[in-house]
Amino acid sequence: MRTLSLLVAIAAASISDQNNNMVAALSTISKSSSSRIRNPPPSPLFPLLESSTVEKEHISLPGSSDNNSNNLSPFLQEMVDEQRELQMNVGKAMDTLRKDYPDFLSRTPDYSLYHENISLKASDGQIQLSKLTSYKKALGLVRSALSLVYDADRSIIQSRMVYDPTRTELRVSYNAMLVPKIMGVTGRTVHVDGISIYAFDLSASVDREGKKNEGAGKIREHRIEKLLVNGAALQPPYFNNFGLEALVGQRSGALVGAGAW
Asked: The pTM is what?
């Protein structure tokens, strides 16, 4: 009887040890699996972020604040400065012409925009002159003649302008309604439509000797692309189209002979 009890006790102890070993093994497997889930091995296709250079290195793109003009070579820096200065001159010209066109009959235009060697041309070849002094005389004569007959306060001159950066040209289209001071002189209101092209000097603002180029960025050429008076192309003698032949006399012939506008 004692022998039977002893055998039963030994069997029970053996079973208990096996259960404990199984529990321990299962616990180890569970911990190992949990560890692998929390810390998966790095994939060759998707490396860990902490090993990536995206977060560790600062990436700067061209044109960003980090790649400013201080990083440019002297040659490129000079080009950037000249382009910036050209844009400023174009902006100044546009602002000034917006004021000069409506007040053409009442005040002298701002000639500081123009190059000393400016040329004035017409698409038909009838008008050609050069030098700023001749340009001033031509526009001055036109202003004086028109202001004698037409009322600056009642006349209206409107303009629209577009800048072409590829050609560095400013295109100004304008139309004017010139109201005579006395209706009996010209008989009716005159309507003028035209298109003018202004080309800018692209030479460097500073020459190779370090001297400042006063003409850089100024208007070098004024081309009259279209000029209609009451729907018809302007033809010499020019003042006759405005009914001014009786007032200006020989001046109109002198203007045509000079090739002025």
From this structure: 0.64
Q: Which two tokens stand for residue 18?
A: 């096996």
Structure tokens, 238: 């020019």
Which range, of 8-17, 198-207, 238-247, averages the lowest pLDDT? 8-17
Mean pLDDT of the chain: 75
Instruction: Evaluate if residue 120 carries a pLDDT over 90.
Output: yes
The residues with which 180 forms a beta bridge, in sequence order, are 150
Contact 144, 244 (CB under 8 A): no
Question: Is 72 in contact with 80 (CB distance < 8 Å)?
Answer: yes
Band of pLDDT at residue 82, cut at 50, 70 and 90: confident
Question: How many CB atoms are located within 10 Å of the residue 252 CB?
Answer: 21
Span of 81-85, 170-174, 188-192, 219-223 with lowest mean pLDDT: 81-85
DSSP letters of the chain? -HHHHHHHHHHHHHHHHHHHHHHHHHHHHHHHHHHHHHSPPPPSSS--GGG-HHHHS----TTSSSS-GGGS-HHHHHHHHHHHHHHHHHHHHHHHHHHHTTTTTTS---GGGEEEEEEEEETTSS-EEESHHHHHHHHHHHHHHHHHHB-TTT-EEEEEEEEETTTTEEEEEEEEEE-BSSHHHHSS-EEEEEEEEEEE--S-SB-TTS-B-TTTTSEEEEEEEEEEETTEE--SSGGGGGT-HHHHTHHHHHHHHTT--
